[in-house]
Amino acid sequence: MVEISTRETYGKTLVELGKENKGIVVLDADLSPSTMTHFFGQEFPDRFFNCGLEEQNMIGVAAGLAASGKTVFASTFAVFASCRCFDQLRMCLSQTGLNVKIVATHGGITVGEDGTSHQAIEDLALYCSLPGFTVIVPADAIETAEAVKVAANTYGPFYIRLSRPRTPLVYSEDYHFTLGKAVTVREGRDAAVIAVGIMVAKALEAADVLAKQGIGCRVINMHTLKPLDEEAIA
């Protein structure tokens, strides 16, 4: 199975968007080689701002730029994008509804050698608790590119969670992402698994194992956690 990094796809998609929209600016918390926003910085140095290891300040800067009419993408690791700056997220973005897209990499427990201090396990719960935020966890690189483009063209605060390792491709190039609409990636009548992010590929692997035992397992990619597609799980 082909594996592609979602964070690298994010960085390259930013460059595409930057060529189309001069109102897009990108912020990073001194982690651009890891979040891959350095692709945008190299292409558009006058629209790229390294805020240093100060996520709280980065959110304030992002809010200010958005208030002046910019479409802002701000990136860091998921653990820092949630726990370190939650008050700023609540006050500067959730309560104002400003057009800022937080795209965090290294989500979950897949950060490997980065260690437990960098494992983001609270981020999705925190962001889903914030009024006005849209929360997306793409399943693969193809869905990542689509989700980032949709976020860029949809006003309001977004949180998009990406992973550190390369991720198996779930979709083909002709895939169309629809915000807030879950996708059934495998049919089955005996059981169902609802997954997000890198766990979609794992769920498909589990469905293959169950199929060999005569159990048909439906796999649903709930890429948008907020707003939740309630009809898909009714």
Automatic annotation (TrEMBL):
<dbReference type="Pfam" id="PF02780">
    <property type="entry name" value="Transketolase_C"/>
</dbReference>
<dbReference type="InterPro" id="IPR009014">
    <property type="entry name" value="Transketo_C/PFOR_II"/>
</dbReference>
<dbReference type="Pfam" id="PF02779">
    <property type="entry name" value="Transket_pyr"/>
</dbReference>
<keyword id="KW-0786">Thiamine pyrophosphate</keyword>
<dbReference type="InterPro" id="IPR033248">
    <property type="entry name" value="Transketolase_C"/>
</dbReference>
<dbReference type="InterPro" id="IPR029061">
    <property type="entry name" value="THDP-binding"/>
</dbReference>
<feature type="domain" description="Transketolase-like pyrimidine-binding">
    <location>
        <begin position="4"/>
        <end position="169"/>
    </location>
</feature>
<dbReference type="InterPro" id="IPR005475">
    <property type="entry name" value="Transketolase-like_Pyr-bd"/>
</dbReference>
<comment type="similarity">
    <text>Belongs to the transketolase family.</text>
</comment>
<protein>
    <recommendedName>
        <fullName>Transketolase-like pyrimidine-binding domain-containing protein</fullName>
    </recommendedName>
</protein>
<dbReference type="InterPro" id="IPR051157">
    <property type="entry name" value="PDH/Transketolase"/>
</dbReference>
